[in-house]
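Q: what sequence does this backbone want?
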């Protein structure tokens, strides 16, 4: 076995180990791995940061010539996109693009959450765009039940393989 094959085999074993952790993990870990969790979390954080300034300036929000209402609008839409990213992971690319667009535009009405909200929104949107659903096949050894019924004394395991499909 040459060097490249050894590297590829080692990489595959490492990937199988990670996916086995997901398969054996709790309900939250399985739920988290079926959606763009970190991207959506950053989008929610960005929405809260962008809403921070308009919430403190609500007294002048609807004064003619004030752009504070734009901060309410963009911050609220970014929060809604973050929640929708959790609920509908299949549309994460669209939500990510719209989040980046609204985060950049929020500089107009809310100073972009002191610009930190804009940066976090761009990063969260990019993570949502980059997320993709993967199906992984994990091979696990299970005991051969026919052999156990025939001969209880011997422990003949590892003859049949069970294949699980895990979303990661």
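A:
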């Amino acid at each position: 076995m040459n060097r490249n094959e050894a590297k590829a085999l080692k990489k595959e074993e490492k990937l199988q180990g990670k996916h086995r952790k997901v398969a054996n993990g709790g309900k939250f870990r399985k739920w988290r791995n079926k959606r763009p969790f970190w991207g959506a979390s950053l989008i929610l954080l960005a929405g809260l940061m962008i809403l921070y300034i308009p919430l403190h300036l609500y007294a002048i929000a609807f004064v003619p010539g004030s752009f504070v209402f734009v901060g309410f609008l963009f911050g609220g839409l970014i929060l809604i996109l973050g929640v929708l990213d959790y609920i509908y992971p299949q549309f994460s690319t669209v939500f990510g693009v719209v989040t980046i667009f609204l985060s950049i535009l929020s500089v107009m009405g809310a100073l972009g959450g002191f610009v930190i909200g804009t940066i976090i929104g761009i990063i969260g949107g990019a993570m949502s765009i980059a997320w993709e659903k993967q199906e992984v096949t994990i091979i696990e050894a299970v005991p051969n039940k026919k052999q156990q019924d025939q001969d209880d004394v011997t422990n003949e395991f590892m003859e049949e393989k069970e294949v699980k499909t895990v979303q990661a």
